[in-house]
Amino acid sequence: MSSSITAANPTSQRRIAFATIIGTTIEWYDFFIYATSAGLVFAQLFFQPAGKDIALLLSLATVGISFLFRPLGAFLAGHFGDVIGRRAMLVITLVLMGAATTLIGALPTYSQIGIAAPILLLILRILQGLSAGGEWGGAVLMAVEHAPANRRGRAGSWPQLGVPLGFLLASGMTALMTGVISPGEAYLQWGWRVPFLVSVVLIVVGFVIRRSVEESPVFTEIAKRGKQTKVPIVTLFKRRWYLVILAALVFVGNSTLGYMTTGGFLNNYAINEQNLDTTSVLVAAAVAAVVWFFSTLIAGYLADVIGRRNTFLIGFALQAAVVFPIFWLVGTGGLFGLYAALVLISIGLGLTYGPLAAWYSEIFPASIRFSGVSITYAFGAVFGGAFAPMISQMLLDTTGSTAAISWYLLAATLLGAGAALCLRDRSGIPLGPDHETEQASGATMFTRSEAPGALAQTR
């Protein structure tokens, strides 16, 4: 960082870590509770006139459609995050997500209000997509820009931990409702609503915590000097479009496989195709989320030791090794096989997710960084995980085999690995506004670094 920008003290860093983890956990709990419910009940409650198979596809499609609005959310949050600050956008996106989620829990079904029910469901899902598109960038920049240079990988993994924690909370809450409080018809009648309505309590907690965190020191310095870019998105696409493409493809390699679990496909496959008990499947997903949490945490530490890119390449290699065995395990191993498959997926996912925040933050210049990381992440989600559950279901319906799904997952993984090889590891590069020239050069293997001394740690 520049001489005028210092890392937060240990107490502040702990407060920032807590705020980013808690806030992101709540945000992604809201997002994942929808994906879990889409595979379990929405086809019956909101799309039943289309017939069983088409209703399921429509239900899974709503999971993906929200991703189409994540870039818009990223554009808006990125613009205002680079102009008015990181912290304000963190609070706004959290409240928007929570309001949409709570309202979904109160929606009448198709049998009650007809076609208006799926339309309202889709509108609220779009609001979730807008929120998710903007939330991630703010959270990771608050974590990374407050951290000392040699701990950015670990600091960047804090908001990343909120994703598996949100998935754990969503899976656990749904398992509680399906298996204990409202099993069977009661879950279909009213039990599915409870996890959505609980969100209103979580939002209050997240709001209070996020309001207590200080603004990023990088943005504070930019604002003090009046160096905010007026239209950061235009600058981003005019000068850094190639970075957006390459970095988005890196995330495609992670999110395509990731949304096989978080998007509900593998759960739905185990329940409907392999006839496994719904609650047992959800418990298995919760256990996998714990593994994902720890592999993400470990990846943040590895990223500071062996570099961001090296950690990613190890993770992609593990992903490529499991895309064929996972369906064999689920198909032949019953519930134990499902546990094994989900654990194998989660290890590779963590290694290709933990270092993402630090790497993204280090490849974009300070004045357009919020726009850069948010839009790149949103594009990676759209072209990777957005429609992965629906595409996988279509491949299964068309071919009658899971082999086509495995080839699809392998292709996405190799695409991500190839993009990672095209980007430089920028560990240790200064993040402050005094170093924009250095930040703007040498981010890819095809461009020359103009400040090799400052990138001595590049691997």
From TrEMBL:
- Transmembrane parts of this sequence: 54-76, 88-107, 119-144, 165-184, 190-209, 241-261, 281-303, 310-330, 336-360, 372-392, 404-423
Entry's localization field:
Cell membrane
Pfam families assigned to the protein according to its UniProt record, in alphabetical order: MFS_1
Record keywords? Cell membrane, Membrane, Transmembrane, Transmembrane helix, Transport
**Domain Major facilitator superfamily (MFS) profile: where?**
16-428
CDD domains per record: MFS_ShiA_like
Superkingdom to which the source organism belongs = Bacteria
Could you tell me which InterPro entries the record lists for this protein? MFS, MFS_dom, MFS_trans_sf, Sugar_transporter_CS
Q: Where mainly located?
A: membrane
Kindly give the SUPFAM superfamilies that the UniProt entry links to this protein.
Answer: MFS general substrate transporter
The annotated topology with respect to the bilayer is: Multi-pass membrane protein
Protein name (Swiss-Prot/TrEMBL): MFS transporter
